[in-house]
Amino acid sequence: GPVSTQSTWGMWAIVHKVRNHGRNKLRCNIKILLLGPGESGKSTFLKQLVEIYGEDRNSDKKASYAQHGDTIFANCIESICTLIRKSQQYAEKDSEFKLNGDNAVHVTKLFGLEENDQIPVNEEVARMIETLWNDPAIQNVREKSVLDF
After folding, report:
1. How far is CA 110 from the centre of its chain?
2. How far is Cα 140 from Cα 4, in angstroms, rounded to an integer?
3. Residues 58-93: pLDDT tens digits?
4. Model-level pTM?
5. How far apart are CA 25 and CA 95, in angstroms?
6. How far apart are CA 22 and CA 90, in angstroms?
7. What is the distance between the alpha carbons of residues 64 and 6, in angstroms, rounded to a whole number?
8. Rounded Cα–Cα distance for residues 52 and 18 (Å)
9. What is the pLDDT of residues 35-60, one digit of tens each?
10. Helix axes 123-133, 6-21, angle to 10 degrees
11. What is the Cα–Cα distance from 31 to 83, expressed in whole angstroms?
């Protein structure tokens, strides 16, 4: 659900940007601070990073995790779409849940991707998720979901 994957969107967007930016560059150390409540996937995310990008891993295992990365990315799209739908539902009664009008194009594209079996994992999609995640209406939905949980 959206509560358990809330931090995953931003983390995968960052990892995707770093991965694409650094493909032909010298290897560098990146420090990531993982914050979140218990059982939110911090350890799992870290293990996946080590398996995908760790130095002592064989290519079969990396390929397996890269494939799962696509599944995680699809789950991120599904989760943000769930938050968008809740935002639209709550906005009928309370304007604090109304999405920024500039984000309408992102909503349309993400809803289209959600229906697609072949979701492109790219920087444009990561940026759309990040932009919507930062929309105050989405944050209000997230807070309401946490409080209602």
Report:
1. 12
2. 16
3. 556 556 655 666 677 778 888 899 999 999 999 999
4. 0.57
5. 46
6. 41
7. 24
8. 13
9. 677 777 777 877 777 777 665 555 56
10. 150
11. 29
Q: Are 83 and 2 in contact (CB under 8 A)?
A: yes
Between CA 43 and CA 47 the distance in angstroms is 6
Q: Are 42 and 34 a contacting pair, CB within 8 Å?
A: yes
The amino acid at 71: T
Which tens digit of pLDDT belongs to each residue from 128-139?
Answer: 999 999 999 999
Give the C-alpha distances (Å, rounded to integers) separating 52 from 36, 45, 66, 75, 120.
22, 11, 7, 18, 19
C-alpha angle 113-4-143 in degrees, rounded to nearest 5? 95
Does residue 72 contact residue 15 with C-beta atoms inside 8 Å?
no
**Exposed (0-12), middle (13-18) or buried (19+): which is 106, by Cβ within 10 Å?**
buried
* Structure tokens that stand for 9 in this block: 């969107």
Q: Is the distance from CB of 46 to CB of 34 less than 8 angstroms?
A: yes
Residue 23 has which token pair? 């493909």
